[in-house]
């Protein structure tokens, strides 16, 4: 589904273009500051909501271009605070909207600049580092992501203590990284401790607690503890429904975890039922080209083939051969 660009975003885009079109030689620094402040005044849009992605596509193009001009003019991208927050939201959008490649490049640039302007341990510098590591993780490059996640966790812990929400989120990210590296023993130990600390400090329905629990389920899955993993994935799905709603991407992703585990347990029919219902919902929310939609389609095909229903499996991709690797 294609959503319209927010009128405030389109107006800001027009305003920024006009600023540069009407500028004259010698005004570059002043124009850059005005353009930066104009974008900083944009309303806060949730990058995790696919209905904002068309707006973020336009915002991202403006931010990418402006960052280059700011560097040339020697104007810091670290001020004002609202511009930093906007850049971090752009980086989040690039991560969740399957654009990890440009996300990693932009995050690396921003992180390097903010280290210079506001310092390595500033919270927003660490958030930019976190976006860089998350994009590397999304690109299955956790070898590069791991030292970044480790440094963030160390700096967060040293600055705020082990039970601060920012430190707990950093521990969650480290746990996800260890899962991807298939170091499931270390991941299980870290994620078990993180879940306990999150539940004590934040409560069971906090988003970070749910993320930590999801990481723990992934560790159990990797260790072959499939029944325990399934129980956790089912609980995670219930929590996401309460916190984020029936059709949020996080809720749909949690349901995918249930289907994957059921298939691994050999309950192909139960997995098929979930994936068949999930496919039109996730496509309606995020579109047919979204990675979650494609992976759901691939999982449904796998379910059908495991059930011996090859003719139906052939139709899942419209009779077109599927070259997407299993999720």
* Count of individual beta strands: 0
Summing up helix and strand content along with how strands pair, one would put the structural category as mainly alpha
Radius of gyration: 22 Å
- CATH fold title of the domain at 1-139: Serine Threonine Protein Phosphatase 5, Tetratricopeptide repeat
| CATH architecture level-2 label of the domain at 1-139 | Alpha Horseshoe
Strand content: under 5%
Euclidean distance between termini CA atoms: 23 Å
Shape: globular
If helices are DSSP runs of H or I spanning 4 or more residues, what is the number of helices? Answer: 15
Instruction: List the helices and strands in order.
Output: HHHHHHHHHHHHHHH
Name of the CATH class of the domain at 1-139: Mainly Alpha
Which residue ranges are poorly predicted, with pLDDT under 50 across at least 5 consecutive positions? none
Major β-sheet annotation? none
Calculate the mean pLDDT score and round it: 94
Helical content class: over 70%
Task: Give a verbal description of the structure.
This protein has 327 residues and is mostly helical. The protein has a domain at 1-139: Serine Threonine Protein Phosphatase 5, Tetratricopeptide repeat (Alpha Horseshoe), CATH 1.25.40. Helix content is 75%, strand content 0%. It is built from 15 helices and no strands. α2 (28-40) packs across α4 (81-96) and α6 runs antiparallel to α7. The longest helix has 21 residues, at 53-73. The two termini are 23 Å apart. The relative contact order is 0.06. The mean pLDDT is 94.
């Amino acid at each position: 589904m294609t959503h319209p660009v927010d009128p405030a975003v389109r107006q800001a885009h027009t305003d920024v273009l006009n600023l540069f079109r009407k500028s004259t030689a010698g005004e570059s620094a002043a124009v850059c500051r005005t353009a930066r402040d104009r974008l900083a005044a944009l309303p806060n849009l949730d990058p995790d909501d696919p209905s904002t992605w068309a707006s973020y596509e336009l915002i991202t193009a403006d931010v990418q271009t402006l960052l280059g001009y700011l560097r040339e003019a020697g104007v810091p991208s670290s001020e004002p605070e609202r511009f930093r927050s906007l850049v971090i939201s752009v980086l989040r959008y690039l991560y969740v909207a399957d654009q990890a490649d440009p996300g990693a490049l932009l995050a690396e640039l921003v992180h390097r600049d903010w280290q210079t302007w506001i310092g390595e341990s500033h919270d927003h510098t660490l958030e930019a580092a976190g976006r860089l590591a998350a994009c590397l993780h999304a690109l299955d490059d956790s070898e590069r992501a791991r030292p970044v996640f480790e440094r963030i966790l160390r700096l967060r812990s040293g600055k705020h203590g082990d039970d601060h929400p920012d430190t707990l989120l950093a521990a969650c990210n480290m746990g996800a990284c260890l899962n991807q590296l298939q170091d499931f023993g270390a991941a299980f130990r870290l994620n078990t401790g993180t879940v306990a600390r999150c539940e004590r400090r934040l409560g069971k329905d906090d988003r970070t607690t749910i993320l930590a629990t999801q990481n723990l389920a992934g560790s159990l899955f990797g260790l072959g503890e499939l029944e325990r993993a399934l129980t956790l994935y089912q609980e995670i799905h219930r929590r996401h429904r309460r916190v984020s709603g029936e059709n949020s991407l996080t809720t749909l992703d949690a349901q995918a975890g249930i289907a994957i585990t059921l298939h691994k347990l050999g309950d192909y029919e139960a997995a098929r039922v979930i994936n068949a219902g999930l496919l039109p919902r996730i496509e309606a929310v995020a579109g047919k080209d979204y990675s979650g939609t494609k992976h759901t389609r691939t999982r449904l095909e796998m379910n059908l083939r495991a059930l011996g229903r090859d003719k139906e499996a052939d139709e899942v991709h419209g009779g077109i051969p599927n070259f997407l690797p299993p999720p």
